[in-house]
Model the fold of this input.
Amino acid sequence: MRYRMINAAGLGVVVAVFLVTGVAGLHRFAGTLDFIFSSPPARAAESPATTQPASEPPPLELFNTDNLKFPRDQIVSGGPPKDAVPALVEPETVPVSRARFLDPGDRVVGITVNGQARAYPIDVLNWHEVINDRLGGVLGSAGVPIAVVYCPLCDSVSVVDRRLDGKTYEFGVSGLLANSNVLLYDRTDQALWSQVGFTAISGPHAGRALRHLDNWELTTFKAWKARHPDSTVVSFNTGYDRNYHRNPYESYFESDGLAFPVASVDRRFKLRTPVIGLKIGGVTRAYPLHELAKAPGGHVVDTIGGQAVRFQVDQGRGVVRVIKAPDHAQVIHTYWFAWAAFHPETEVYEYGAAR
Done:
């Protein structure tokens, strides 16, 4: 594995060039991938910085690894250390009509809770990955504590309720990866959580998942604004000096390989095939977007684990909607390689196929 690091003082952005070799079953990846470092709010500008190469042992001693449920030797450093990618907490929002910083085709994660709608730009999530927020306050309540999480390496989106056993958790970015997917940590127990499934892989809740929300979509700003003209949007005024108009992962998305190892590669689909992954109890199923798009209007109603689920896809307009999923289901938009690596036994939805 070869790395070329650009070193300089201060915090900011480091650009790493990876060439992944010698990992069975992986594609060769050659390209440039920016790693994003935190800077003090509203002060330091973007500048190169030094980081730990991903080939070094991950700093697991910074976290609570009791009851670890994931193979220790498959957890790797992503480069930036703990909290170098700064999670946001209840960021500033603006009415959708005033979100002139977004272009019509910019991608957003749109969420509706208790009738309150908000868009979370991927342009922001690229640089922060986790937004701890509250949404859907009624009758003077503060709203439901939610986490909106995006892993750029997997194009993964998950939306969860941050409450568990009477506690409200706040999440940060650990700087670690499992199956090329971001590992989060909670700031209460310092335990690690996998974004795929949003399941604790260590600590007192190891093996348990937070409640995944439905009624969210990965869509364009234009489509969201048309459907939710009274919604709000997370603004670019985050308190961090970032160029949110620049995608630091652009060259990664132009490649067809992986920057980090995964436990296994399932060749049923190309690595970067987008899917909705769903888990209910012991049943896992992947819904490739190209299969969902075959349904009339891209609208699919399916049954998994005896429960009904509803999705809608408009690939031409870049819209993926999770309309309905049971409260105890885990649901995520991600690339096939990540879903299959975590769930090698997964079923695959095929439109029109009898089951």
